[in-house]
Amino acid sequence: MARPSRSVLRWFFPLFFSLFFLTACSDPEAKFEEQLAEASALIDQGQYDQAIELLNQLDEKYPDRGVVLQELGRAYEESDVGLFAGVFYEKAAQADAEFSELLFPAARFFAEEGDRNRALSTIDDYLELYPDDAEAWRFSAELLAENQRFQSALSAHLRAERLDGPSRNPEYAATMGELYMQAGNIPQAEIHFQTALSEAPDDRFRALMGLLGASYRAENFPQAEEILATLNEEFPGAVESSQWAGAQDDVKAWRVRQDTLAAEIAALEERRKLAEAEAEESEEAETSTDDENRVGHGTVLAHNPQQGGGKMAVLEDPQSTIDGKLAGVGEMEILEMEVEPEPEPEPLPPPPPPEPTTLDYALEAREERDFDRAIPLFWKAVQEDSDNPEVWAELSKTYMMEGDPENAEIAILEARRRDPESLEYTMTYLSVIEKSRSRARYMEELERAYSQIPDSPELSLAMARAYAQPGGNPANAAFFFREFLELAPNDPNVDAVRRELNALP
């Protein structure tokens, strides 16, 4: 085969490379990828101004490309221009759902730049897309607390708490205690401060200060005195420079009053004892005098003055004297004294009814639908007996009656944590999250409960009705309706369940 001439090769290679570059340049996407890679490399090399310039050019040629906006945000972040980093991260998330996770760092940058309202708006948008991000809920809670929206901040923390699991996260216990104090819920604040004190050693000072404030505001001065002693020993001078300096003065004044009162009571007690002793001595003296004047037992008085001793002489041998006197007199009728029966003792009065408990007062307030009074009372009852699942369950029921399913979920989770085998608390939890969570989350929890207790008619019926809802699965609904009828043939709801089964498409 003949080799190509040099003249042909001389023209072939330039033409080949020209066509290659012409083709590359004619492909916009290839050019875009090339320039984007170049800009990313400039960011990695620390040449932020050049990268930003190139990325702005790309943004003009290819508007609303999420990846370009993301790289712009990254360039500004690396060059410590937080505001623009947040702006471009937010724009990237809005332009392309693939970059929606950038809303969280955007919110952080807005907050760092002092724009809390924009940060809140951005984190709210993020949480609508990612409601199971506990860290984002905590961040939202911080922003809400800074805006003095304490109840909303508590709700955000509680959402994060649910995601952390049934037990409290002690890392945030002191923070939540402070929020409960701001919201006026002192019993719950004290519970969280106690959690921080026992489980979060880094927050010991905050926990002690919080407990001092809670005790003082509840006028529990004995407890406040103990906490003050601990604070003054471990953190000398801290109370005097805090907002509770006045509390320390009030507690000291209370102690002075208590000591004065105790001294007065002791003096009164001493006088009472002296008076009782004097009364006893006087009574003993009177008794001694009466004994001296009383005639002894077995002594008979003589009525014959001839026996001597006057009209009332004492006979030393009364029986022989009487026998002699009565000799020959004949029989005498001896009158027997009628002894009156002893009266029957009066029946004891019935014991007084027991004093109503805090839980009784809470239930009474709820019955009257006075939730502003009932809920603090329930929290006080929780504080008095925090291991009682019934109290937590009643608190959850009260929150549901008030229309607050989020707090109701927290309370019923505490009840389940204390009695995980209770079907009643499981069913209550499911009814709560049906209102507080998404349908997908409700179905997930319902199926988990059913797998744990498969022979429960209540759970079978709940499964059936969940699947029977619009958009559900009628075949699954029919299966669980039939299972309920098999498990509970005598249930009073059988006829209604059969109607629901027959109404399935």
From TrEMBL:
Residues 273-312 are annotated as: Disordered. The keyword Protein biosynthesis does not apply. Keywords: Signal, TPR repeat. Transmembrane segments: none annotated. Residues 1-26 form the signal peptide. TPR repeats lie at residues 170-203. PROSITE patterns: PROKAR_LIPOPROTEIN, TPR. Residues 277-290 have a biased composition (Acidic residues). This is Tetratricopeptide repeat protein.
